[in-house]
Amino acid sequence: MAKIFCVANQKGGVGKTTTAVNLAAGLAQHNQRVLLVDLDPQGNATMGAGVNKAELKTSIYEVLLGMSDVNEARKRSETGRFDVLPANRELAGAEVEMVELDNREKRLKNALAAVEAEYDFMLIDCPPALSMLTLNGLCAAHGVIIPMQCEYYALEGLSDLVNTIKKVHANLNPDLKIIGLLRVMFDPRMTLSQQVSAQLEEHFGDKVFKTIIPRNVRLAEAPSYGMPGVTFDPISKGAQAYIAFGAEMVERIKSI
Ligand code: ATP
Ligand code: MG
Questions:
Q1: Who has the most CB within 10 Å: 31, 160, 215, 216?
Q2: Overall number of domains in the chain
Q3: Which of 7, 17, 131 has most ligand 1 atoms within 8 Å of its beta carbon, as the pocket-test mutant?
Q4: DSSP classification of residue 13
Q5: What phi, psi does 208 have (nearest 5°)?
Q6: Cβ atoms of 232 and 221 closer than 8 Å
């Protein structure tokens, strides 16, 4: 059965999508069967996996509203060697439309259950908000991966996310836990990065992943070619870091 993880942080632009797409590709390199779930109406994970969001007949939107199923909506990322449950702007409507439906927080969970046996990992790329969509992600998952930049404001807002995760754990999904904090866009030359990184280790101990993702322009360039950085430039420092993170996750799930 698949282990399901949300990549979440309600702060925008902290590297959620880059992490979801490249971890998916990194895990595929370790021969893991992966479904990348795009839960953001921006559709960036979809595009970054090489699937054109403008040409979707069915997407996660129809799946959440019960008009289609995962089997019908999923696509293959040929560039990343994983499957994608794609999203586009339509998904923004689901936020409102789901309010009227039964079990509205668990619609993603129930939809993913049908294909759970086909994968080792499912990775859910969440939007930058603690919204009904993110709540669906948290209810479907066994754990949360929180990407963060090691900068002064990084810890601000983290408590809102941690509190939301605690509430979901208490009321809706007893399986849910924080798997770890992932340091991304790391610049070792900056003293501040080093300091914040050390603070994170001090406060969160082994909840901080060992792998650190460096700031690397190849990771930022890759999406415009519809490729994960991991396959776009496999020997770049960013790609190597995400491949190492894949290995760390394969190891980590043994103790979850
Ligand atoms: P949103 O909240 O809008 O969904 P996000 O948290 O998903 O954003 P990304 O889209 O992954 O963040 O990253 C934001 C920007 O930073 C993008 O332009 C991306 O290419 C760039 N970026 C992410 N990680 C790195 C990295 N390690 N090195 C260099 N650039 C990066
Ligand atoms: Mg994103």
A1: 216
A2: 1
A3: 17
A4: T
A5: -95, 120
A6: yes
How far apart CA 196 and CA 204 sit, in angstroms, is: 12
Of 1-15, 150-164, 238-252, least confident by mean pLDDT is 150-164
Can you give the pLDDT at residue 74?
98
24-75 pLDDT tens trace: 999 999 999 999 999 999 999 999 999 999 999 999 999 999 999 999 999 9
Q: 66 C-alpha to center of ligand 1: Å?
A: 31
- The kind and range of the H/E element at 4 are strand 3-7
Q: Which domain holds residue 227?
A: 3-255
Measured CA to CA, the distance from residue 123 to residue 141 in angstroms comes to: 9
Q: For position 46, which CATH number holds?
A: 3.40.50.300
Q: Which ligand has the shortest distance to the CA of 217? A: 1
- Detail the DSSP E strand segments found in 41-151: 75-77, 82-85, 121-125, 143-149
Round to whole Å and give the CA distance between 144 and 165: 8
Instruction: Give every CB contact of residue 237 below 8 A, 6+ residues apart in sequence.
Output: 214, 216
Q: pLDDT tens digit string along 119-167?
A: 999 999 999 999 999 999 999 999 999 999 998 887 888 888 999 999 9
d(CA 149, CA 107): 31
The beta-strand segments (E) located in 105-216 are: 121-125, 143-149, 177-186, 208-214
